[in-house]
Amino acid sequence: MTAVNERPAVAANIVPMPAKAPGWQRGYSRRLVVVDLVGILLAVGLAHWVRFGGISSSVATYRFIDYTTVSLIIATAWMAALSINNSRSTRIVGSGVEEYRRVLMATLGVFGGVAIISMLFKLEIARGYLMLALPAGLLFLGLFRWLARQVIAKVREKHGRCITRVLVVGSPSAVRDLASSLAREPRSEYQVVGACIPGPIPRKKIDVPGVGEIPSFGDESNVVGAVTATGSHAVAVTATERLNGRGIRDLSWELEKLDIDLLVAPGVVDVAGPRLQMRPVCGLPLIHVEKPQYHGAKRFQKRLFDVMFSSAVLVCGLPVLLAVALAVKLTSRGPVFYRQERIGLDGKAFEMIKFRTMVDGADKMVDKLAALNESEGGVLFKIREDPRVTRVGKILRKYSIDELPQFINVLKRDMSVVGPRPPLAKEVRTYDDYARRRLLVKPGITGLWQVSGRSDLSWEDSVRLDLFYVENWSMVSDFLIAIKTVRAMLGHSGAY
Q1: Which of 128, 260, 421, 423 has the fewest CB atoms within 10 Å around its CB?
Q2: pLDDT tens-digit profile of 306-331?
């Protein structure tokens, strides 16, 4: 992917610097205090103004309750709860959903406490005030933190700053896998700047495709020296036979003196956090990997989400659907809709519906255009400037409007709103056992492949993202992917 090459991964041109924790994390956490305070004051201020019409003589009273004081108390308790829940911890800010989860738990704790106190002391705090302040606070806190993340991400992508430099300890293959995984996301916090390779054969460097050369600094006995030479902020220990549990413990003691973080990569590939459970057994920290869940309450929740979301889109988007149908019919010969056989859950075929964006009979031209196929891997068929696409079709594809009729497929139970890309039958015939696991869940209108590059992805990356979704799907991930899809559609990256 092109994003990998844009990453400022200067592994081969390292400038030694003092080994200390990255200062940007501490500065970022301090700025979040101001961000949170502004969000909370806006929330309680808005609720106060809407419910009571502003502050009269600096004090607003309702049923003998001074709501100016109440607002100040809630704001103070809210800020304290965010601190108590470590929502600004340098371990979680800037990436992942854990930061938002802690903000949510802190907020619910504050308003739950207000409700209990109100009930015990019969304060009769206006419910309308609380019902406004709660969602407004979650909205402002989430929005402002998201904006703060975007600023950090832009700085990382454009200037290579706000980065945590990582020294990797492990076998060459483990170093390559970790460096490649981190480099796929140009906005990732971590950047591999060096390696220590256990073993009798010394190496000067490790070539990582798409990243470059990563210098090696001897074996596991030279970790401290390598940290100083590379200016690393953290050490990641990957799968290695020569560094046992006691060796990792001793290493953690040495790094503790230097204020360097120790990360242990368990070697479990493409398994998300909720499926990993730490279980101490006889003094040993064992990681239990939960089985993927595709049934029961989670399946019911997913179906409910599909029905509600699809119905809302089809009803609210009816004028757009009618306008697009008219545009397709008037500008080119052929039917309005394009129907194509795709393979769904458990390998069962279904007819997928889209607005027609190509000339009628485009499927019969594939063999003539085979030499122009730009897809890596040879399984998919993609041409950036496809001559079969109509003028209206280019606009529909640019903003993914042609896929709106697929919500009908969702209501028919053929597809889901979020899921793996629906494959063709000829593609499925080329699947190995690894790729066939994509068929364990319903295909989706959108998915990780949609918000991670779409047609710009290689076949291998597309399969990897689909399998990650299959192995780790949840309602939270579906909701986040749906939100990110809107951004991907507006940015129309990878759409052709």
Answers
A1: 128
A2: 999 999 999 999 999 999 999 999 99
